[in-house]
Design a protein that fits this description.
Blueprint (H helix, E strand, L loop, with lengths): L20 H13 L2 E5 L6 H9 L6 E7 L6 H12 L10 H9 L3 H16 L5 E7 L7 H13 L4 E7 L7 H6 L3 E4 L1 H4 L3 H7 L7 H11 L3 H13 L3 H7 L5 H8 L6 H10 L5 E2 H8 L4 H11 L3 E5 L6 E5 L1 H14 L1 H14 L3 H10 L3 H19 L1 H8 L4 H6 L1 H12 L5 H18 L2 H17 L3 H12 L5 H17 L6 H15 L2 H6 L13 H15 L5 H16 L3 H17 L4 H18 L2 H15 L5 H17 L3 H14 L9 H17 L3 H12 L10 H15 L3 H18 L9 H8 L9
Parallel strand pairs: 1-4, 1-5, 2-3, 3-4
Antiparallel strand pairs: 6-8, 7-8
Helix pairs in contact: 1-2, 3-4, 3-6, 4-5, 10-12, 13-17, 15-18, 17-18, 19-20, 20-21, 20-23, 21-23, 23-24, 24-25, 25-26, 25-27, 26-27, 27-28, 28-30, 30-31, 31-32, 31-33, 32-33, 33-34, 34-35, 35-36, 35-37, 36-37, 37-38, 38-39, 39-40, 39-41
Length: 789
């Protein structure tokens, strides 16, 4: 949970609250019958207290989910709070709440609608007679995505639930439609202001006579907060009402400061002014900020006086905290800034030192105009936020930087580059942003940060198939003294380069070193960014390292339905398949599929799953299902705008057609490959033969040209490990050996098979599982006098 528990708790009510009789009765009825209840009035009209007081009168068989909105809250954060607030009522989720959260914040409209439907269905099926969702202080929301979500929620909300909004300004929602349908109850300033009788009840026992109460009511025009503040001032020093009335021409800030703050004893007033820099007031933090050992006593006195605060339960259950009303807090801070600017800055610095939440520190640096410090925090902490919560919250925080600096600061370019990588695979933008970040850091002389951005840029260039530019960057990085995390990214780029240039024998040593660094650093964003690429399973010597990597991913993910866990299960399925444990592989793949449905919606997970589905279908002998999975993967990912991927996708489909012995499909895929070849292949023309020659050999065989097929297989095998993607070397040897057997060349066939047996003894059958009828034919052949030798 990334928020304080107090955000989903209704504020504790004061014992002295006035019973607002008819208003509460009307509101109580609306909260049980209307689709939307809107309390819209300026600050201090008692919206929160009235809602909390009335919601407290609902029966035990009715649910109340309360969410308090804070500055900077966006769709992701508020939806996370809402799902947590609903959890005590045990909604019958069809998938994990995290999955619903991730789906609704994604830019894909189809996925967003599907996940919103899951949320609405779960609300409708809740076992409560009626439910109420309260969003308090909605005016603090600046994220248009959340307001759009509210409109969609209201449009389809079950009659079983009511949404109540408390706000200072009218929200940009489809209110006219709800008014026309009779589904909106509105409470605005005329309805919320105190009547004179309510003012008399509030001020009873304050020492004011009837004339004084009438004068105070006339001055405040029934503003509940103004009356409450006046009452607090009167309790602090009798007779203060006259001064309140004389201040009738002053602004509300003057009213708050002169007629509330100045009525307090000087030590309490100074304390209150100092702690106004904090968003919430806890005794320990207030003491650390002010150096006042009596902080707890002063907070108790502030609450007793009712000085425009809300009482909250401490999130750890060990004490109480207070939250100043926005208007009062702003008035106090304005006075502090103007009267004591140096103390204001000192207190803000102390506040930063006592703030444990790095994202809150980031926002506080922004408020102070300390952009460099905020940018440093962004580069340090937003990468993990991207992994855990998606790109939306991180990009929303970046938008809070001033526009000019936002585009210039290299730390922010670095974060934008990571956001382009995860989850959209926009490697072109990742390259631009990382190049921008590297140049910006280089101008500052920040060598370590420059090298880190260059390492990520090398990954982007490799993903784009720009091997020459990527290799040039890697050569620079190999000569530099790199931090461990940058070493890890350099190794990642080198692995991608080795795979793209068919130097598969280099991958396992790099993968082993990467795993050592990952365990040493143990940072969630690094585990995710270095998940083994799809073409790594089945490479020479990789089964053991991948098994160890998957074990570590499961340790990091735990039982959370996040992409790391799903990918770990997928890797385990690959490894089990390569070792010949096909039943275990099927079970792991099914578990990964369930995990993906429950919580993992990223493209990497989907692409992994389709590849795995295709290979498992081949092993089961279902060539059509394998081709269907490969074709579906190509349809889903061909529009990424990356010409290198546009070539690799039909290459995999051609491999499935070749291994499944589907000649027409293989011919079609090879023709598409020829049309999609990039002008410059990574590794040059030599890698073209390594990728396509074994597939051409299989087409020759399937179309009845055995001699040409044998010659092509032998030529392919002469390329050594360069053809060994997804166990293709073993598969080629088995097919060549079968061809040789059919020609009566059993001795040659035995020589061809020898390396396959050696590989199977070490790592399992691997690519031999994909050799189809060749394996069956070889198993039935008479090897007496040949293999025995």
């Amino acid at each position: 949970m990334s928020f304080a528990r107090t955000k989903i708790q209704a504020p504790r009510l004061r014992a002295a609250l006035v019973d607002r009789g008819p208003l509460q009765a009307r509101l109580l009825q609306a909260l049980q019958q209307q689709r939307l209840v809107l309390l819209c009035a300026p600050a201090g009209f008692g919206k929160t207290a009235l809602l909390a007081q009335t919601a407290g009168q609902l029966g035990a068989d009715q649910a109340v989910a309360w969410v308090s909105v804070d500055e900077g809250d966006d769709l992701h954060h508020l939806l996370e709070c809402l799902l947590a607030a609903l959890e005590p009522f045990d909604p019958p989720w069809r998938s994990a709440p995290e999955s619903i959260l991730q789906g609704i914040v994604q830019p894909d409209p189809g996925l967003r609608r599907a996940k919103l439907a899951e949320l609405l269905n779960a609300l409708d099926l809740c076992e409560v007679r009626h439910g109420l969702i309260v969003l308090d202080d909605l005016h603090r929301v600046s994220d248009p995505g959340f307001l759009a979500f509210l409109d969609e929620l209201l449009e389809r909300l079950s009659p079983k639930w009511t949404l109540a909004l408390a706000t200072r300004t009218e929200p940009p929602l489809a209110l006219a439609r709800l008014r026309a349908a009779g589904e909106l109850a509105e409470y605005r300033q005329p309805q919320l202001q105190f009547a004179e009788a309510e003012t008399r009840a509030l001020l009873a026992g304050s020492g004011l006579d009837e004339a004084g109460v009438a004068r105070l009511f006339e001055r405040t025009q029934g503003w509940p907060a103004g009356l409450r503040m006046a009452l607090g001032a009167l309790q602090g020093e009798p007779g203060g009402a006259d001064r309140l009335l004389r201040a009738s021409e002053r602004s509300w800030f003057d009213f708050l400061l002169t007629e509330v703050l100045e009525q307090l004893p000087a030590p309490l007033a100074d304390f209150l002014q100092d702690v106004s820099v904090l968003p919430e007031l806890q005794a320990a933090r207030c003491a650390a900020l002010t150096g006042d050992a009596r902080a707890a006593e002063r907070l108790a006195e502030i609450e007793h006086l009712g000085l425009f605060v809300e009482a909250l339960d401490d999130p750890n259950g060990t004490g109480r905290s207070l939250r100043l009303h926005d208007l009062f807090r702003e008035a106090l801070q304005q006075r502090l800034r103007r009267a004591q600017p140096e103390r204001w800055r000192l207190l803000r610095q102390r506040m930063l030192q006592t703030e444990v939440d790095p994202l809150r520190r980031l926002q506080q640096h922004l408020e102070l105009g300390e952009l460099a410090a905020a940018a440093t925090l962004a580069a340090e902490h937003l990468p993990a936020l991207i992994v855990n919560a998606g790109t939306t919250p991180a990009l929303h925080l970046l938008q809070q930087f001033p526009a000019g600096e936002r585009e210039q600061l290299p730390e922010l370019a670095f974060v934008r580059g990571l956001a382009a990588w995860t989850p959209s695979w926009d490697f072109e933008r990742m390259h631009r942003e990382m190049e921008h970040a590297a140049l910006g850091h280089a101008r500052r002389g920040a060598q370590a940060e420059c090298l880190r951005a260059r390492a990520y840029d090398a990954i982007a260039l490799m993903a784009l198939g720009r091997y020459d530019a990527g290799d040039a960057l890697l050569q620079q990085l190999q000569q530099a003294d790199l931090a461990p995390a940058t070493q890890l990214m350099r190794l990642t780029a080198e692995v991608w380069a080795a795979i793209d240039t068919c130097r598969y024998e280099l991958v396992a040593p790099h993968a082993q070193r990467m795993l050592e660094l990952l365990v040493e650093l143990d940072r969630p964003e690094l585990w995710y960014q270095t998940t083994p690429p799809l073409r790594m399973p089945g490479l020479p010597g990789m089964t053991g390292p991948l098994e160890r990597h998957a074990d570590q991913l499961l340790r990091v993910a735990g039982e959370r339905p996040i992409p790391l866990r799903t990918i770990a299960l997928q890797i385990q399925a690959w490894c089990a398949l390569w070792r010949g444990r096909t039943l275990d592989a099927e079970q792991r793949a099914l578990q990964a599929h369930d995990d993906a449905h429950w919580g993992s919606q990223l493209g990497a997970v989907r692409s992994y799953q389709l590849c795995l589905d295709a290979l498992l279908a081949l092993v089961r002998g279902d060539a059509q299902a394998a081709l269907q999975a490969a074709a579906e993967r190509q349809r889903e990912f061909v529009n990424l705008g990356n010409p290198w991927y546009a070539y690799l996708l039909p290459l995999f489909r051609a491999r499935m057609a070749a291994s499944g012995e589907q000649a027409p499909a293989l011919r079609e895929a090879l023709a598409e490959l020829a049309a999609r070849r990039p002008l410059q292949l990574p590794g040059g023309p030599a890698t073209l033969a390594a990728r396509e020659l074994p597939l051409q050999a299989q087409l020759e065989w399937l179309e009845g040209r055995p001699q040409a097929a044998q010659a092509a297989w032998q030529q392919a095998l002469s390329l050594g490990a360069a053809i060994d993607l997804y166990g293709l070397a073993a598969e080629c040897r088995l097919r060549l050996a079968w061809a040789q057997c059919t020609q009566g060349q059993r001795e040659h066939a035995a020589q061809t098979l020898a390396p396959v047996f050696e590989l199977a003894r070490r790592d399992g059958p691997g690519g031999a599982l994909l050799a189809g009828t060749a394996v069956a034919g070889l198993a039935a052949a008479d090897w007496q006098g040949v293999l025995d030798e």
